[in-house]
Amino acid sequence: GQQLNQSPQSMFIQEGEDVSMNCTSSSIFNTWLWYKQDPGEGPVLLIALYKAGELTSNGRLTAQFGITRKDSFLNISASIPSDVGIYFCAGYSDSWGKLQFGAGTQVVVTP
Amino acid sequence: NAGVMQNPRHLVRRRGQEARLRCSPMKGHSHVYWYRQLPEEGLKFMVYLQKENIIDESGMPKERFSAEFPKEGPSILRIQQVVRGDSAAYFCASSLTSGSLNEQFFGPGTRLTVL
């Protein structure tokens, strides 16, 4: 089946640094969503992207829907301790209900 | 404005017992989805329901697993005769619409442990 490849798997950064992660797919996606998951909780939606080339910001977060519709990236600027968590990309390809998830990027922020 | 609610948050069952997980979608949402997450992995789609109908169950095992979303009340994911491999976090999500503008909002999950 189709797979989302998310990288990096983990990142250890210092407070104030920027973070960048991306997802790629072998298939075209119609929608890209970025979620953050804290330990013991469900994923929380951060940003939704609907059009190829779309660049969307939410505070210190910026995400883009790749022109080829096969990739997306998420940037976090000026990281703070509460940015710690696991970030997942997700998207719809051929089925509107079935969200496919990447394996996640674990972000650790040190003071 | 309550979000997606799931209960119980933690469930312990012995092998062979039944597990019943409940999900109440956000107010006004009629689309419900169930996902399973193993440790250090992403979420895997199981089933998509819309009031009283199963729309897509392609990710749900054919045996022992069933899901329903009745006209009244929460959506239920039922696992019969649980085995150790069923231990995982099960998340429910809901959405207002279906289609390309579908944003799914997740509940806090039910962590199932099978002894």
Give the helix/strand layout.
The complex is a heterodimer of chains A (111) and B (115).
Chain A: E1 4-7, E2 10-14, E3 19-25, E4 31-37, E5 44-49, E6 55-58, E7 61-65, E8 71-76, E9 85-92, E10 100-101, E11 105-110
Parallel strand pairs in A: 2-11
Antiparallel strand pairs in A: 1-3, 3-8, 4-5, 4-9, 6-7, 7-8, 9-10, 9-11
Chain B: E1 5-7, E2 10-13, E3 19-24, E4 31-37, E5 43-50, E6 53-56, E7 65-68, E8 75-79, E9 88-95, E10 105-106, E11 110-114
Parallel strand pairs in B: 2-11
Antiparallel strand pairs in B: 1-3, 3-8, 4-5, 4-9, 5-6, 7-8, 9-10, 9-11
Task: Tell me what the structure shows.
The complex is a heterodimer of chains A (111) and B (115). With 111 residues, chain A is mainly β. Chain A has no helices and eleven strands. In chain A, strands 2, 4, 5, 9, 10 and 11 form a six-stranded mixed beta sheet that branches. In chain A, strands 1-3-8-7-6 form a five-stranded antiparallel beta sheet, with no helix packed on it. The termini of chain A are far apart. The mean pLDDT of chain A is 92. By secondary structure, chain B is mostly beta strands. Chain B has no helices and eleven strands. Chain B is globular. The mean pLDDT of chain B is 93. In chain B, strands 2, 4, 5, 6, 9, 10 and 11 form a seven-stranded mixed beta sheet that branches. In chain B, strands 1-3-8-7 form a four-stranded antiparallel beta sheet, with no helix packed on it. Classes of the chains: A mainly beta (111), B mainly beta (115). At the A-B interface, strand 4, strand 5, strand 9 and strand 10 of A face strand 4, strand 5 and strand 10 of B.
- Which residues of chain B sit in consecutive blocks of at least 5 with pLDDT less than 50? none
The total of beta strands of chain A comes to 11
pLDDT average of chain B, as an integer?
93
Strand content of chain A: over 45%
Q: Measure the end-to-end span of chain A.
A: 41 Å
Run of helices and strands of chain A: EEEEEEEEEEE
Shape of chain A: globular
Number of separate helices of chain A: 0
The percent range for strand residues of chain B is over 45%
Considering residues with a beta carbon less than 8 A from a beta carbon on another chain, report the largest interface and each chain's count: A-B, 27 and 31 residues
- Poorly predicted regions of chain A: none
